[in-house]
What does this fold into?
Amino acid sequence: MEKSSKIFVAGHKGMVGSAIVRALEAKGYTNIIKRSSKELDLRRQDEVERFFAEEKPDYVFLAAAKVGGIIANDRHPADFMYDNMMIEMNVIKASYDNKVKKLLFLGSSCIYPRMAPQPMPESCLLTSSLEQTNEAYALAKISGLKYCEYLNRQYGTDYISVMPTNLYGPNDNYHPEHSHVLPALIRRFHEAKQNGLNEVVCWGSGTPKREFLYADDLADACLYLMENYSAEQLGNETVNLGSGKELTIKELTETVAKVVGFEGEIKWDTTRPDGTPRKLLDVSKLKSLGWSYKTELEDGVRLAYEDFCNNAMRAER
It folds into this structure.
């Protein structure tokens, strides 16, 4: 990409999209196109087609998505499937129609089977059944990456699909019901500390293992791949983006409590679901391409908590 190339970041207000914008600006890219969902509804084909025909972006980062935690995915599967399918298909098709040079599609590690081998290689996709609590979201993301793969195969496009692990960082969603586990814990422990509570109850058993990647590290990896590699070089297969490290939810909870400064007791409600037992990505392909993560978990949680205190809480007041 040239520094003056016209680059569309779809979903620039979200955690991932805003991190990609920061990474692009830090590297001197000056022609970044951004549209809010109020300005451009990516679920509407006519709006997307009109936007691409007028703007003619050279490169696209497709970070826009409807996202949420276990509760949101389980309660609203139809919404998660429809919104994500429409966003992906509209943006990818319009990119093809308007001769976008390269597109990067962001999926999710939930695309892999519930009982996938650990760590999960890219090749385990579609080898067995998905985790039921987020099946609709996973199916939508699988469709997006497969559409990119089919366009590459049929028309010779250069569309890269990347599958990030669990993400966290500035501009995350801290909603008490609709957020993912790490931001939900930040909010829960912060409010417990503020209210002088002696205990916090967390969902499940605390035994499932998870991997986390700081959002700015993810953005750096996405930019690295867009600048250096093509779908053909990658074998037209998705690329896992993660740290390659895992810890239990219990260990994560203790880390967040430490950073926030909550000193009370942590209890576990085992009547609540755990979700997938283990989700560790095999990042050997990413490492072989010359990239690895930089931000350790506790440092990243500290940065995320600062963002929560400075921005998320202020926005609610």
